[in-house]
Specification:
This protein has 385 residues and is of the alpha/beta class. Helices cover 33% and strands 19% of the residues. The protein has ten helices and 15 strands.
Length: 385
């Protein structure tokens, strides 16, 4: 058997082991979930996946060699070399050959802009979906099978390469059944996501006949558009969602609406929809990852929480060393569910570590050609040797 064939088998065995752990964690037992997370063998599994990705992703192997880190001298998962999210726009961080790629997720943007691409096979997509369902069940509060799902996100058939659209479709298919979602948004001619006024009106009219709790999911900009449609913050109780309803806000304005602080947006949503403060939850994810984090309402320390197979490291942007708890830095994500890509990602987001999770401050100022932009220009790219 060739080396590539052996790598494929080993990655498949890793996927099976990780999926089994996800299924176990998804179903709560009498044991505390924090205790379960502490027992999760993240260090050992991260080392194993790093070795497999070092062997199977040639581009990543060259990058790690350039950084002087190999499976033989790795001291801990903290030292696994990260790759910047911006590099996914121009480079293929994948162990999948062209004929193995079932689909890909790409970052959002309008026609003509460069977008990140994260390739998936059938197997890696199944791991993505299992990670999503387990994290949603355990970290997003509510009775998921009882929700009526309403999406300020287009149908996945309209946006087939949006990880967020695929996320919504997967959640609805698993908890409510195929096609059991009302989509308030559609894709415009330039690729932008737009609210459909007829669908919004139909949803509002339906509230008088359907008492099921609603799970409303949408990007920050889509939810701002919805709030504007309902009449801004000066129209309290514009509509009243049924008891037990939740909102999942996924962040991201991308210049498609006015920008509000998270606290402002959540207060407006609570006011317009007749919700308690505990009903609006923020999700953190991106096309380059296969797992998500969730933050319930409140002030720090009330951090974003991650599933056990996803770890966060905050590093000082000047030194690259870990930041002290509470101090701002660049968010790095280590996601074991990124089996066929690379597990270690450096984002363009700023945050801080808090207790068992992390806080998110916003995007890094990218006005100066540092870090990720230097990598894209080739100044940081390792020679082909």
């Amino acid at each position: 058997m060739s080396n590539s064939g052996r790598d494929h088998e080993r990655l498949g065995a890793f996927a099976e082991k990780l999926t089994a752990a996800m299924i176990e964690w998804e179903q709560p037992t009498s044991e505390d979930s924090g205790s379960w997370a502490e027992r999760f063998p993240f260090e050992a599994m991260a080392r194993e996946l790093f070795r497999l990705q070092y062997q199977s992703v040639e581009l990543y192997r060259r990058w790690c060699d350039f950084r002087g880190v190999t499976p033989e001298n790795l001291d801990s998962w903290h030292s696994i070399p990260t790759v910047p999210t911006s590099s996914f726009k121009t480079m293929e961080w994948t162990s999948l050959g062209p004929d193995e790629r079932m689909t890909w997720f790409q970052s959002s943007g309008t026609t003509g802009t460069r977008r990140s691409r994260h390739f998936h096979s059938k197997e890696s997509l199944e791991v993505y979906e299992r990670s999503l369902i387990a994290g949603f069940r355990r970290l997003f509060p509510g009775e998921h099978e009882k929700y009526r799902y309403v999406m300020a996100i287009p149908d996945h058939n309209e946006a087939p390469h949006s990880s967020l659209a695929h996320m919504g479709w997967t959640i609805v298919r698993h908890f409510a059944g195929e096609g059991q979602a009302l989509h308030l948004s559609q894709v415009g001619g330039e690729g932008q996501w737009l609210l459909n006024p007829e669908r919004v009106d139909a949803f509002i009219r339906s509230l008088g006949n359907d008492s099921r709790p609603v799970c409303l999911m949408g990007t920050a900009f889509s939810l701002v558009h919805l709030c504007d449609w309902l009449g801004t913050d000066g129209n309290p109780g514009a509509i009243r969602l049924p008891a037990g309803s939740r909102v999942m806000e996924t962040g991201g304005y991308k210049g498609q609406s006015r920008e509000l602080s998270r606290e402002q947006l959540h207060r407006i949503l609570e006011n317009l929809l007749g919700l308690d403060a505990s009903a609006v939850v923020t999700e953190y994810g991106m096309s380059e990852l296969s797992s998500q984090a969730y933050r319930r309402p409140g002030s720090p320390p009330n951090p974003f929480l991650t599933p056990p197979w996803m770890r966060i490291r905050i590093v000082d942007p000047e030194t690259g060393h870990p930041s002290e708890q509470g101090n701002p830095g660049i968010i790095q994500v280590f996601d074991l569910a990124n089996i066929r890509s690379v597990m270690a990602i450096e984002t363009e987001d700023l945050g801080s570590s808090w207790a068992d999770g992390f806080e998110l401050f916003g995007r890094m100022d990218s006005s100066e050609p540092k870090g990720c932009s230097l990598f894209e220009s080739g100044l940081w790219f390792p020679p082909n040797r």
